[in-house]
Write a structure and sequence with these properties.
The chain is built from 1 helix and 2 strands, in the order H-E-E. By secondary structure, it is an alpha+beta fold.
Length: 79
């Protein structure tokens, strides 16, 4: 027997919202884009993408997954 209309479960579909990810930045670097060199800006954008992707990496592989991109001697380095 099927449940009556009043007892049926109603499924709600919600859009996935961006989850705030903890950041150790003191200030928002997006406010200083005009002061960055093109290489620093590229490193900043890559770091933001890595931070957003990190929660989707299985915990066993996180120690090998880079968490930040820095500019060292005009070269991008993942650390």
């Amino acid at each position: 027997m099927f449940p009556s209309f009043e007892r049926r479960a109603v499924l709600e579909y919600r859009a996935v919202e961006d989850v705030d990810v903890y950041s150790d930045d003191v200030g928002n670097l997006d406010d200083f884009i005009e002061d960055m060199t093109p290489l620093e800006y590229e490193a900043h954008e890559m770091t933001k993408k890595l931070v957003r992707f990190r929660p989707h990496v299985p915990p066993i592989y996180r120690r090998w997954f880079p968490h930040r991109v820095v500019v060292h001697d005009n070269v991008l380095k993942m650390i």
